[in-house]
Amino acid sequence: MKAIIYTSNTGSTAEYAQLLGNELNFPVHSLQQAKNKVPVGSEIIYLGWIMAGGIKGYKKAAKLYKVCAVCGVGMGQTGTQLKELRDKNTIPQRIPLFTLQGNFDVKKLRGAYRFMMNVMVKTVGKGLAAKTDRTPEEDDMLDMIVNGGKRVSLQNLKTVTEWYKSVF
Questions:
Q1: Category of 51 on φ-ψ map: left (φ > 0), alpha (ψ -120 to 50) or beta
Q2: What confidence tens digit (pLDDT) does each residue in 155-167 have?
Q3: How far apart are the first and last CA of the chain?
C-alpha cells in the first residue's frame, strides 16, 4: 500500500497532505489514524511540521513505514533549510527531502507553542523591521510575521509531484 501520512499542528501540513494525496491519488491519513489503516512496512510519503529544526513525527513514521520521501512544512520558504533538516532529523541521503512553506497564524497555536511563537514574532519581527537591507526571503518572513498569511499552494508541491512522477 502507498499512502500519504502526516502530522499537523495548525492545519498547513494536513492541507498539503490532502493536496498531494489528490495529485498522486493516494490515501491520506494522520500518523495517529494510520495505525489502524496503513499496514506497517508500507511505502509512504511523510509530511510533518517543522519546530526548532525537527520534523514532528518523522522518527516514529520511519520506524513503522518505508518512508520514500519527507516533506517538512514550516515558516521558511519552499525549498530552503534542506541540509539543516536532513542533518538534525538524520534523514538518509537516499530519501528525498522537500520543504514547503506553510501558513502562519499565531492564534491557531496552543500552549507553549503559542507562547514561543509570540516571543519569536516580537523579537525577530522587530529585528527584521529595523533591518534596511533585507533579502526577499527576509521581506517574506517579515510579511508573514506581521500579517500572517496563507502560503499553502499546489505550486509549492510541484517539485514533490515531479519527483514522484519521474521515479514511479
A1: beta
A2: 999 999 999 999 9
A3: 14
